[in-house]
Amino acid sequence: MMTKNIRREDMSRAVIVHAILLTYTLVALYPIFLVIINAFKSRKGIFSAPMSLPNAETFSLEGFTKVLARSNFELFFFNSFTVTVVTIVIVLLLASMAAWALSEYKFPGNTWLALYLAVGIMVPIRLGSVSILNLIVELGLINTLTALILVYVAQGLPLAIFILTEFMHQIPKDLKEAARCDGVGEFKIFFAVILPLIRPAVATVAVFTMIPIWNDLWFPLILAPGDGKQTITLGIQQFIGQYVTDWNAVLASLSLAIIPILILYLIFSRQLIRGLTSGAVK
Amino acid sequence: MADLKLDQIRKSYGAVDVLHGIDLDVKDGEFVVFVGPSGCGKSTLLRIIAGLEDITGGDLMIDGDIVNTKSPRDRGIAMVFQSYALYPHMTVYKNMAFGLKLANHDKSAIDQRVREAARILQLDKLLDRRPSELSGGQRQRVAIGRAIVRQPKVFLFDEPLSNLDAALRVQTRIEIAKLHQELKSTIVYVTHDQVEAMTLADKIVVMNAGNVEQVGSPMQLYHHPQTRFVAGFIGSPAMNFTTVHIDAVEQGKVTVTVPGGAKAVLPFDVPAGDVGKDVELGVRPEHLSPGELGDLSISGEVDVVEKLGDSTYLYLKLANGDRFTVRAPGHSRIKIGETVSAAAEAGASHLFDVDGKAYAKLECPPEYSADE
């Protein structure tokens, strides 16, 4: 009797939780769904029935043809992709090494350094836009992808270091010491033992780092708005006018912009395997 | 393989001294066991030998070289951890080969060493598995294999059997003993289990509160403990202790009054100045025979009876409230509540002064002596 009650309680709790999550998922996905269906409609179709699926009458690829013919879409794409991937690589490398140092080695100022890096999580980097712009101009990096990469690395590092440090703490001490007794050097311990073990954390950090960069409009707008250096979010802006907005093109390019980030996400999420350390100790 | 020498090794964490000057000589090929209660510093000492902890003072020599500041990889040691500490993302084969590969050993040489270690440890069929697919005993064997392939000068074992269940522990213990016979290597082994220490060691180092209490062969420690601590630590069930009064000393004999009023004459070298003092008498449960009278007789009421089949342990409550354990034969019919007298030969007893130091025993029958 008791167990049955408990089970029923669990059941209803599960239903409620799933109902909430499902609602949230629908709310979050619906705009994306709208973007995608409308991307495949004619201009008239978009305005007359924005909520309906494309049918034989309204189906049109005019947005896609316009985007691919009239703009440097491939270039924007390439720019966004370069900036995102290079930033992820640099952030992951630097953050995991910093996290390893902060969690593994005792040195004076260790705690203060960790705190200093954590402050970066709380202060939005955009507050420093003006000084960043000045700095980039002085460095002569204005209108380059390098400028964007540098800023994004600075933006991504604090949270990445914070998350990875926590994960590093969880790695059993015996494992590192066993490796040391095994004659493994510190660099090799880091790259061959520690990194494979925190792969799920690294993948999580990669996703966290990647999405705001891909979606960012602010820094591309102020640091690299020049011809040929625009990222995809900035590039799309040419279709949004003060008086006329070319919705076909905007929606089509937005739909296309989802694809690469989706692919990256799928790659990283495959690394999010739990329980990788099982079997290490005990 | 090599010898190991510790010279006044000290270790402090800030103001807290953990080890207070440890001296020890380990000969080539010797199996040395550090044993002691939790927190006595035995693991710290092992980690100092491994190079995982810095030395605060003193010198550590492996094979004649002072290695105080050398990193673990340069000391020629291999360590087996209590938690096994296998690399979870590597197969058994890679776990064992990893260290060698980084040391740039020839591929075929690595393969040969790994397969040889796998043969010795019966891991041949498990080489492609990952640690998560192994049982506790198998993981421990892999951890030992990882140490073997390095062909270290000194093997270090940190409580390697603590995580295994009782049956597996006995089996693995025997395997480690066989391994030592086969490899003839120098081994330093840490445990809190005195049975492991007794069965495995050539030489036991009993530690207490950061000091070495006594170093000796298992039989030396069993028969000739130099302190009350060692006497109480080695042997299972533990030695019985009770307070006795020194009545008289003459010609290498001491007369004491045991609880209950009986007198006993024991062969200890007690200085005349100690007459009138209360000191501590120790007798092992297995050296007491119930229901008999002898050189040393003591009686008490039976509190608890434990029947183990081959023997029965009687727990006596003495006149002064101390507990005495007596080993009786398995068929003993003695019941709770009976008053039983138990006797031991004078040569089987131990006497400790007020500071816990053993008085020298002047005559010792061969059955109570470590001499062979």
Automatic annotation (TrEMBL), chain A:
Pfam family membership, one: BPD_transp_1
Topology of the protein relative to the lipid bilayer: Multi-pass membrane protein
InterPro entries listed in its UniProt record: BP-dep_ABC_trans_perm, MetI-like, MetI-like_sf
Subcellular localization: Cell membrane
Residue spans crossing the bilayer: 21-40, 76-102, 114-137, 149-168, 189-214, 249-268
Cellular component annotations (GO), alphabetically ordered: plasma membrane
GO annotation, biological process: transmembrane transport
Stored CDD domains: TM_PBP2
Stretches assigned to the ABC transmembrane type-1 domain: 77-268
Record keyword Membrane present: yes
Keywords tagged on the record: Cell membrane, Membrane, Transmembrane, Transmembrane helix, Transport
PANTHER family membership: DIACETYLCHITOBIOSE UPTAKE SYSTEM PERMEASE PROTEIN NGCG, MALTOSE TRANSPORT SYSTEM PERMEASE-RELATED
Family: Belongs to the binding-protein-dependent transport system permease family.
Protein name per its UniProtKB record: Carbohydrate ABC transporter membrane protein 2, CUT1 family
Species annotation: Thalassospira xiamenensis
Lineage: Bacteria, Pseudomonadati, Pseudomonadota, Alphaproteobacteria, Rhodospirillales
